[in-house]
């Protein structure tokens, strides 16, 4: 069977004029490290679930992406992280939201899927489950970066939840990371992880932790991970809707992705994108924004890394 993997590091307004060569090299290197981590597992006969977990962990460990180490800060200057994972085989899934002391949230989502009777755990309960299953307690200091602190102060001054000025090339990017994969056994999987939105309050949770909105995997149909304005992706149930269009309307994955991202979602003002993989291991990238950090390794082993929307 062919096998392949694709990843994303968030979509939104990513400006060439703000991107330095050094920063671009660092981001592209992290994307390549992520996609190759997943590919290494697939090529050695590993599962799609393990591949997407490994790929997302690399992005969570990088300060360049809004997940894990590089997560944005809440109104109270804390990090609250969400993640979800789904296996196309049997449609098993796991999700967590609002965790503050877990270094790699995607690993916890995977543990919920594999080691609990539940699908979705939140906050203190999710962390209690984590520590009972030998996850290490990680201090908040680990997640702090100067960039995210500066972003929060800028937004607090203006009373905003979306940035109106740019200090970095992707300040107005909806920071989520994700991966989709097909393994040698024909199984699909998808995973998504995020730090949410800067200056969020009230325990806000977006689409990344929600099975059907931010993550979906169904064998012989599609695997999907989304990134964008979470409230719109929740309302449109984007990931599951894409799968339904493939299943019931016999659309290709590309047709279904474009219909949602360029049609219904865009018409409502929902900016963002998604990555999807069909049952043959073909990766699709759809976005209605100026860019999306993304990379893929196709069934022939060819690696592609892209940032801007106008790159094929």
From TrEMBL:
Record key words, sorted: Autocatalytic cleavage, Hydrolase, Protease
Site note Cleavage, residues: 175-176
Entry keyword DNA damage: no
Pfam family, one: Asparaginase_2
Active site (UniProt): 176
GO molecular function: hydrolase activity, acting on carbon-nitrogen (but not peptide) bonds, in linear amides; peptidase activity
A biological process from GO: proteolysis
Binding site for substrate: 204-207, 227-230
Protein name per its UniProtKB record: Isoaspartyl peptidase
Organism: Vibrio astriarenae
């Amino acid at each position: 069977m062919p096998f392949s993997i694709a990843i994303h590091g968030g979509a939104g307004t990513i400006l060439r004029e703000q991107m330095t060569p050094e920063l671009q090299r660092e981001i592209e290197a992290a994307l390549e490290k992520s996609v190759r981590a997943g590919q290494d597992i697939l090529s050695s006969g590993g599962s799609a679930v393990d591949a997407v977990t490994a790929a997302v962990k690399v992005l969570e460990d990088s300060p360049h992406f809004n997940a894990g180490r590089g997560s944005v800060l809440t109104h109270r200057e804390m990090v609250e992280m969400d993640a979800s994972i789904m296996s196309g085989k049997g449609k098993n899934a796991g999700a967590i939201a609002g965790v503050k002391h877990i270094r790699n949230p995607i690993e916890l989502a995977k543990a919920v899927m594999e080691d609990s009777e539940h699908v979705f755990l939140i906050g203190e309960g999710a962390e209690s489950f984590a520590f009972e299953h030998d996850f290490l307690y990680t201090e908040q200091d680990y997640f702090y970066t100067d960039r995210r602190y500066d972003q929060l102060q800028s937004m607090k001054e203006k009373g905003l939840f979306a940035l109106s000025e740019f200090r970095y090339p992707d300040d107005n990017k909806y920071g989520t990371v994700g991966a989709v994969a097909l393994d040698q056994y024909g199984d699909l999987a998808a995973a998504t992880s995020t730090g949410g939105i800067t200056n969020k309050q009230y325990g806000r949770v977006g689409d990344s932790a929600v099975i059907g909105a931010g993550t979906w995997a169904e064998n012989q149909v599609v695997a999907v991970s989304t990134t964008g304005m979470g409230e719109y992706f929740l309302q449109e149930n984007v990931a599951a809707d894409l799968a339904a269009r493939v299943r019931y309307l016999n659309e290709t994955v590309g047709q279904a992705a474009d219909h949602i991202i360029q049609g219904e979602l865009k018409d409502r003002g929902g900016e963002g994108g998604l990555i999807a993989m069909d049952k043959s291991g073909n990766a699709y990238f759809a976005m209605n924004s100026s860019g999306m950090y993304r990379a893929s390794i196709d069934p022939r082993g060819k690696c592609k890394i892209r940032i801007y929307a106008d790159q094929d």
